[in-house]
Each structure stands twice: as structure tokens, then as C-alpha cells.
Amino acid sequence: MEQAQTQKKRIFSGIQPTGNLTLGNYIGALRNFKLLEDEYDCLYSIVDLHAITVRQNPAELRKACLRTMSIFLASGLDPVKNIIYFQSQVHDHAELAWILDCYTYMGELSRMTQFKDKSQKHADNINCGLFAYPVLMAADILLYQSDLVPIGVDQKQHLELCRDVGQRFNALYGDTFVIPEGYIPKVGAKIMSLQEPEKKMSKSDPEETYVAILDKPDVIRKKIRRAVTDCENRVLFDPENRPGVSNLMSILSALTGSSMDAIAAEYDGRGYGVFKDAVADAVIAVLEPIQNEYDRIIADKAFLQQVMESGAERASQIAHKTMLKVRKKVGLAAWKL
Ligand code: ATP
Ligand code: LTN
Fold this sequence. Notes:
Layout: E1 10-15, H1 23-36, E2 41-46, H2 48-51, H3 58-74, E3 82-86, H4 92-101, H5 106-110, H6 113-121, H7 128-143, E4 148-150, H8 156-173, E5 181-183, H9 217-225, H10 243-256, H11 260-267, H12 272-298, H13 301-330
Helix pairs in contact: 3-12, 4-7, 4-13, 7-8, 9-12, 10-12
L-tryptophanamide binds at residues 12-14, 16, 47, 50, 137, 140-141, 149, 151, 155, 158.
């Protein structure tokens, strides 16, 4: 008798459909999704419930959801190998988040740096969803019994919280959830703003601070040429003292695989103009093919609809199993799922 095939490990990650996806999202998260699709069982979600923790224009949000899904597909993710879907179309996310809210402490959530940052940015709308955002993220991950979570370094604190809540639940009720590990890239886990290189590149900041995945080549070149560096004209990796040039070196290294030493050896002494053009060339070489695919995919609404429906259905099947287990453990009616 042939042995049953061993189950592949599972991956879950999510990206918010807010604004334009950036080069930071691509290097820190999206391109790793593709690298992992053969070795793992992967779910990639467009986390629209997370997006509404800050005010969104409804029509714009719906479009951004489709744009984000099209970018996932254009970057090469296979919708058969991977489950690609909208978070809000699998109701179990919200249900598990509510249950886990009851196992998460106010003190834990008050310490989250993203909550502190976003409360400052949106001082007129510090809502409960923004506060409980990391619990919904924990629910996303735990719902699928995920082993690995590809993220940029800014999400490390949220992943720690997810592990803590999962472990707390397991300790109370016996093994229920797989406790996940993060998958954070060695280079490019935190791409910085082009204008304020001490800050993370973020899609909700002004246009000139980021390269969007969909920026056309001339715009990419212009933005990189205008990126803040310093007046020393040296191409040396030193994030503390030369954050701007070090950020550009990280981008080049992440996209070409060259080491920082090799980049310094090639470009130091040749001036920032030559170096910035090389960075722009590397970014364009990676993004242009994605943009061409994107134009084709975003126009194919029937295909998008089919990916969306089958993704939600496949995700729901896995999610339901966990929910049944969780409902039994906490004492909720569990026979009607
Ligand atoms: P926002 O600015 O709207 O808060 P964001 O740009 O941080 O959003 P998310 O949707 O929250 O984007 O993040 C999606 C993924 O991209 C996460 O895994 C996150 O860690 C990663 N990521 C985001 N920005 C960067 C960055 N500058 N460098 C590396 N990874 C990043
Ligand atoms: N919180 C993440 C997006 C996100 C996520 C997830 C990432 C929501 N759920 C689950 C990994 C796994 C962010 O703001 N970048």
C-alpha cells in the first residue's frame, strides 16, 4: 500500500485593499507569496474588513479590492495552487475574531505600535475596530491552522500577539490552534519612505514617498531620482547614518540578489545619479511585466469573479472545520454548521 501523502504545511497572509500597493508591499510580502506556492498550501486574502478600520469611500474600496486581487494574480500567483479570496466573504473571520476578543486583554492591545501610530493619524476616528485590529488578524491566521505567515517586519508585533492568544486558548481548552511562525525576508523586510527614510514606506502616505507597483516607468524613475539621500555622495550601507542611500541599496539588493558589498563596490564613487538610475532600472525591470499582466487581468471581470467565488468557497471549507472545533470548546451550539 502506498503511504498517504504527508500534508503540506500551511501559509496564510493578508494585504489590505487600501490605496496603491507599494514596492514595500511587493518586496516585504507579495513576492514571497509566489516563492512559497509550490512548497506550501497557501491562502492569500485581501483583508477588506481590516481596511474599514479607517474611513473608506465605499465605491473606491470595492475597486481597490479588485485592484489588489488583480495585482496578486499579475505578480504570478496561481489561483488554483493558492486560495485567493476576500476576507469579508468568509464569515468565520468575523466570528472567530469576536470569540478571540474575549480572550485578549485591553493592556495587550494598548501596547500595539500600529494602533498608536494609526490613532495619531486618525485622531478623529479612534474606533473599537482599530483597537481590535490585531485580534482580527489573529483570527485570520488561526482560522486556517497556519504554520507560517509571510509578513514585513512591521507586522511582527501583531504576529506575537496572535501566538500569545492562540497559546492562551490552547492552554485553556486543549490543542485547538496551530501556533504560527513568521516568515520575514532577510533583505527588504522594511522598505523605507523615499522622502523620510527613517519611516516605513506606506501606501497611505503621500504619493511621492512611495513607488506604487502600478507606477509607470517614467514615474518610477522620477520618484527614485528625487529620493532623499545625503550630501556625501557615498554608496555605503549604513542605515543609521545614511538611511536614504541604504534604503535604495536594500531595494537594489532585494530585487537583484546582489550583496551590499557588491553594490558598494560597483557604485561607490560614481555619484548618486548613476546609482539611482541603476535602482530605477531594477525596479522597472521587475514591475513592468507585472503591470502588463495587470492590465489584462483587471479587464477580465468574469475571471476575477470566478477566482473570488472559488477562493471564498475553498477557504470556507477549511475555516468551518476550525469553527466547529472552537464552538465546541467554548460551549457554543455546534451542531448546525
Ligand atoms: P497602510 O499604509 O495602509 O497601513 P501598508 O502599506 O503597511 O498599509 P499592509 O496592507 O498593511 O500595507 O501590508 C501588507 C504587507 O506588506 C504586510 O505583510 C506588511 O508587513 C508588508 N509591508 C508593508 N509595508 C512594507 C514595507 N515598507 N516594507 C516591507 N514590507 C512592507
Ligand atoms: N495586518 C496586516 C494585514 C493582515 C495580515 C493578516 C497579514 C491582516 N491579516 C494575516 C498577515 C496575516 C497589515 O497591516 N499589514
